């Protein structure tokens, strides 16, 4: 049976790059596929980056207790369908890229989960990264919104099992892979 790892980190922290480097180095890691009501972005691949669902469908899944966790976040709903997550666990370790509220719900239901938080080197650096992101043209309002959200997320980091700093994506990926391999060899 594979183990569960939650990896959280604020928008702009470079989590996508870190996760990419981790999977390049360890091809056996599996990703949980979240369901969301947010609109797909150009870079999204339905069924790969997210399962895009209507709010009605999402609420139906909530009623059916189909989620391992779920959250209403940035005006959209996000959740981890339990069936796909548990099925993947029969094949390997599963990574959940979810925010703190969801992370703590997973811990309630699956106490053996390992919670890992990726921090930026500083809030100033996070702001700089958000402002110079090549893939998005964020409005000032959106940048403010994300920084506020990031401040709240950082305040939750003390409840995580591990906090890693993304000062360098390769180094950060290696640090997380070391946590995973240590957990693998535990017990
Ligand atoms: P985005 O819309 O930019 O893809 O993701 C926004 C945020 O939603 C990220 O912080 C991401 O970690 C979080 N998120 C993605 N999927 C889930 C999920 O299934 N559950 C929860 N609680 N958060 C999620």
Find the CATH topology.
Answer: Rossmann fold
Largest sheet descriptor: 5 strands, parallel
Report Rg.
16 Å
Q: At CATH's second level, what is the architecture? A: 3-Layer(aba) Sandwich
Mean pLDDT: 94
What are the secondary-structure elements, in order, as H or E? EHEEEHEEHEHEHHEH
- CATH superfamily annotation: P-loop containing nucleotide triphosphate hydrolases
Bound molecules: guanosine-5'-monophosphate
Distance between the termini: 13 Å
Q: Quaternary state, please?
A: single chain
Uncertain runs are none
- What topology, given as strand order, has the largest sheet? 2-7-1-8-9
At the first level of CATH, the class is Alpha Beta
Q: Specify the number of helices.
A: 7
Indicate the structural class: alpha/beta
Number of domains: 1
Task: Describe the 3D structure.
This protein is of the alpha/beta class. It has helices at about 15-25, 55-65, 80-90, 100-110, 125-130, 140-155, 170-185, and strands at about 5-10, 30, 35, 50, 65-75, 75-80, 95, 115-120, 160-165. The chain has a single domain (about 5-185), classed as P-loop containing nucleotide triphosphate hydrolases (Rossmann fold). It is built from seven helices and nine strands. The relative contact order is 0.22. The structure holds guanosine-5'-monophosphate (5GP).
């Amino acid at each position: 049976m594979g183990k569960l790892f939650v990896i959280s980190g604020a928008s702009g922290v470079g989590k996508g790059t870190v996760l990419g480097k981790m999977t390049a180095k360890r091809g056996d890691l599996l990703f949980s596929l979240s369901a969301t009501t947010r609109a797909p972005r150009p870079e999204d691949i339905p069924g790969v980056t997210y399962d895009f669902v209507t709010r009605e469908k999402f609420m139906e899944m909530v009623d059916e207790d189909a989620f391992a966790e779920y959250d209403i976040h940035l005006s959209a709903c996000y959740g981890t369908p339990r069936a796909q997550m548990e099925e993947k666990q029969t094949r390997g370790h599963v990574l959940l890229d979810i925010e703190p509220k969801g992370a703590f719900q997973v811990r309630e239901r699956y106490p053996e989960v390992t919670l890992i938080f990726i921090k930026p080197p500083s809030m100033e650096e996070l702001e700089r990264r958000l402002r110079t992101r090549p893939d998005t043209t964020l409005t000032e309002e959106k940048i403010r919104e994300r920084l506020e959200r990031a401040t709240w997320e950082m305040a939750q980091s003390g409840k995580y099992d591990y906090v890693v700093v993304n000062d360098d994506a390769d180094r950060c990926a290696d640090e997380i892979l070391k946590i995973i391999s240590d957990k693998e060899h535990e017990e």
